[in-house]
Design goal:
118 residues; mainly alpha; 2 domains; rod-shaped; SHOCT; transmembrane helix; transmembrane
């Protein structure tokens, strides 16, 4: 588990070569700091990281860098729906007959649906 104070100290003392990024598991950014360490831009960014780590709360640091060590909360959003009332067989056959009369379904589709209902 990564420590906020250790990350801040690494950023202050060895941040110019990206050691704090390697410590936090950000190897891509760590290699970028190593490649451009001669420009002193990574040292400037590491100093800003140092200040951010010092002002960041422990909870937000853990949320950002130690998320794998904490169990994710299980959110249960299941809302039961009431069961649908059984349909009246006679009204369903009448509805199918109207669909057949309008030409929406064929005679064979009507017969098959009626057979399923009965």
């Amino acid at each position: 588990m990564k420590d906020k104070t250790a990350a801040a100290l690494l950023a202050f003392f060895l941040g110019g070569i990206g050691v704090h990024r390697f410590y936090l598991g950000q190897t891509g950014l760590g290699f970028l700091c190593l490649i451009f360490c001669w420009t002193f831009i990574p040292a400037f960014i590491a100093f800003i990281d140092f200040i951010i780590f010092l002002t960041m709360s422990k909870e937000s640091f853990d949320f950002k860098y130690n998320r794998a060590y904490f169990q994710q909360p299980i959110v249960n959003n299941y809302v039961p729906t009431p069961p649908t009332p059984p349909k009246d067989t006679a009204s369903e056959i009448e509805r199918l007959h109207e669909l057949k009369e309008k030409g929406i379904i064929t005679q064979t589709e009507f017969e098959e649906a009626k057979r399923k209902l009965l």
